[in-house]
Amino acid sequence: MQSIIAPLVSHRICLAPPPIPRHRLLSHRPHSIRLPSHRSTTSLRLFFSCAAASRDSEMAATTNDVQDPRIPKIASSIRVIPDFPKPGIMFQDITTLLLDTEAFRDTIDMFVERYKGKDISVVAGVEARGFIFGPPIALAIGAKFVPMRKPKKLPGKVISEEYSLEYGTDKIEMHVGAVEPGERAIIIDDLIATGGTLAAAIRLLERVGVKIVECACVIELPELKGRERLGETPLFILVSSAA
Predict the structure, then answer these.
(1) Catalytic residues
(2) Helix, strand, coil in percent for the chain, rounding step 5
(3) Which keywords, in A-to-Z order, does the entry hold (predicted)?
(4) What CA–CA distance (Å, rounded) separates 231 from 11?
């Protein structure tokens, strides 16, 4: 399939879909994403990255018609594993991206170029793969890295935010005092699927007075409509799964 360039349109609606378990995968729709061999660009639809943010975001793109030449390399380095961790799941495996030093560097560089000089003092990373991309971005833009973890993983006093799963709830936590009111933050994860964890991270940071500039992910699974759960917070992504 030939790669195409297509800007994503931000959805400014806060209606949450029925709770779905947050996995980094497509749930029981094996026909919705093509099965590539490793390093095949057919597995992901490519987007000019800056077009992925909402048009009225302070981070909005100045150019909408040119695809960054680094994106095909990033997309082709992401492996799709069928039927993992269970049948019907198409798992987006970023470990192959991490093995490709050029693609990994380009991924970090694209985020750094977007956020450097934007007065961002907090890079919040969502457990667990947000911990891979968040720290190098934070160091490069001169911000602190704040890990947002699952319950009972942080040793100090924490503040938490609950979010819904298909059969119950879960929480995301961060240390009390990790951020200050008035700070400007971006939230990093490797992938947005249903959007439940990112939405909880937004609520948690906003509760303590932090301004969320944007959420940023390497991959989006648009079939799961996760960006609709982010409300007014813009979303920036590099590649999107093919429909």
Answers:
(1) 129, 166
(2) 30, 25, 45
(3) Cytoplasm, Glycosyltransferase, Purine salvage, Transferase
(4) 8
Tell me how far apart the alpha carbons of residues 195 and 16 are, in angstroms, rounded to a whole number: 9
CATH topology of domain 25-241: Rossmann fold (3.40.50)
Cβ–Cβ < 8 Å for 12, 54:
yes
Q: How confident is the model at residue 31 (pLDDT cuts 50, 70, 90)?
A: very low
> What contacts 189, CB < 8 A, 6 or more positions away?
125, 126, 129, 130, 133, 197, 198, 215, 216, 217
Model confidence at 207, pLDDT cuts 50, 70, 90, reads very high
The mean per-residue pLDDT over the stretch 202-219 comes to 99
For the chain, the structural domain boundaries read: 25-241
pLDDT value at 214 more than 50? yes
